[in-house]
């Protein structure tokens, strides 16, 4: 099967053409040419997939296997996925413009390891415990939540699908996965690997679709939980829809994370690292540190260093190993980024670097790495998730002020603290209202620890043991004395 031409959904253990015969053209962000095709899910396709998942969960073997048996299959899938990492990376370069240099980290690096991680975790996770209080006995069990509607974004399609599929399957759930129309192709490799590993029919169904398909899936009475990664606006809509049904929901949403540079940090070394990190996947990363907070006394130096760094970043064809920043995923995304930059200038910001379309790239949806100076933290460019290669440099007046600015955001997903004294860095990190913090560039050891956000950055956690229990319902059973 041609990896860039997918004529059928993966549904109930096989390949099923779309019920209404509709397809998406997949357009390369670097060439603006059609590079592939994917089936478009209609409400009929969604209904079929949910019915298959419902049958697989209610009557099939998967939820009734032991955790160890499910773990064996996940481990086989990990082995198969590891053999296909280059293929996954190649598809994402074509469908969403990920630079080849970023693919190992952003597109494939955590996929197979995540399945290995949940395979090992579910073998030993405390899924049952006994409780004795006087003469009263109880048994607490953790049961799979049921049929999961998983909706994933285009910036890391297979990685973020794995964040949901691996723990959901480990828990014993069935999944209907809706990849995005912008980058629907690479996710089918995940389905193929799990199919080859022996996953029973209906336990995983993969149907690319648009917003209407996603809403039909979210509101479908046959789904028990929604797991979503995407924009905060879409997350709010999904949360409202789930609330009407009291349906379980987990949301991994937007961010506007701050990199807090303290006055004892090596500014010349730190600023280039922050700029480089913010440009990963062309800035299309929810956890990117896109507000650079630096001591006011060294503000000019920080801006100059940031601008000089941005000017050296190679922008170009994502297939070229030298490229660091590729295109944005769509013309509308480039227009959105450019609109924020224009608004920032109108609000008094200064473009220290970038802010234009690269002259040597007449085709493709490119924006040059952009550094904005003289930004007030109340400005829209400092509060909204831009999702592009744009970073704001903001001055602070000491640790307390830096914490105040960092926390003055509707988001709370990620963040960083840079200090010559790691203990001081930890003290500041503890004060940040955000789901994860890196001190001096040391990020938490994902996937062994949870990822998620405070405030409008989401609800619930993925990865770590918390990611497994995200797909489990606790149940308490009272036992008579002679039950065990």
TrEMBL record:
Database matches in InterPro entries: Ald_DH/histidinol_DH, Ald_DH_C, Ald_DH_CS_GLU, Ald_DH_N, Aldehyde_DH_dom
State the PROSITE patterns in the record: ALDEHYDE_DEHYDR_GLU (PS00687)
Occurrences of domain Aldehyde dehydrogenase (ranges): 15-476
The alphabetized UniProt keywords are:
Oxidoreductase
Key word Oxidoreductase present:
yes
Which Pfam families does this one have? Aldedh
Which residues participate directly in catalysis?
252
Protein name from the UniProt record: Acyl-CoA reductase
Name the lineage. Answer: Bacteria, Bacillati, Actinomycetota, Actinomycetes, Cryptosporangiales
